[in-house]
Amino acid sequence: MTQDILSVAHDNGVAWVTIDRPEVRNAFDDHLIAELTATLRELDGRADVRAVVLAGAGKHFSAGADLTWMQRMASFGWDDNFADSQALGELMHTLNTLAQPTLARVQGAAVGGGLGLVACCDIAVASDRAVFALTEVKLGLIPAVIAPYVVTAIGERAARRYAVTGERFDAHRAHDLGLVQEVVPEAELDTYLATILDTLRENGPQAMRGAKRLMRDVARVPIDAELRRETARRIADQRASAEGQEGVAAFLNKRTPSWRDH
Ligand code: COA
């Protein structure tokens, strides 16, 4: 599937989703938000897609919300603005909860909502020349719908600082904050991603989805009896599953598990 503002390429079980509006630094308006949300929903849970990479065409990952669209929306009523903002929230939620592992490939600027997209991915790899900022306050705005994902990624304290200052920070600071997990020279971005994708291809596809959901579900909830029952239930289910049995049998019989043949 390919649109003029978004492209999707499939490579050996990995879907590469590329925002393709380099003329506005991959800023997203209502059309792009709708296309990206629909694309992610279509990929969500597909058995033939083991991982999803989110990238931006050109020199930058994404300049966040399209400001000409924001300006246009401001002349509409409150209900339209609310519905429009909910659509952006739905995009972030869809990416954040995608069943498969997600990777952000970050070069250039990841600003505002662009930074939000990075925060929604499981793994983020940045070029050493990448820059980040929550610039909303510089425009008299606030980083609202991305806030929960930013706070989850970098913690409340750092989020408070960068949300109120709008300061730019570089890839190394983003790494220190936990917003990105790896910083590599720009020319090595794809090689590094390929290494991670090879690692993901070795893992049980259902197990990765279960592990991802598990981490999200146990975060920020009390470790009480109910949670302990729930985690026990999840491993009991996975052990008894075809994939769990295949993985353990393959290890004990010193052979590769069947999912690696596909
Ligand atoms: N919305 C709409 N258009 C945008 C945009 C955005 N968020 N970001 C960039 N553009 C447009 C510019 O207006 C410019 O249009 P023009 O060619 O018609 O003049 C074009 O993209 C190139 O922008 P430019 O600033 O010259 O590119 P750059 O490569 O020097 O810098 C950025 C890239 C992303 C660092 C810079 O464009 C920027 O800071 N953008 C604003 C990002 C922002 O604050 N987003 C938060 C929104 S809440």
Automatic annotation (TrEMBL):
Residues 239-262 are annotated as: Disordered. One of its GO terms (molecular function) is catalytic activity. The lineage of its organism: Bacteria, Pseudomonadati, Pseudomonadota, Alphaproteobacteria, Rhodospirillales. Signal peptide: none annotated. GO terms for biological process: isoprenoid catabolic process. Belongs to the enoyl-CoA hydratase/isomerase family. This is Methylglutaconyl-CoA hydratase. It comes from Limimonas halophila. PANTHER family: ENOYL-COA HYDRATASE, POLYKETIDE BIOSYNTHESIS ENOYL-COA HYDRATASE PKSH-RELATED.
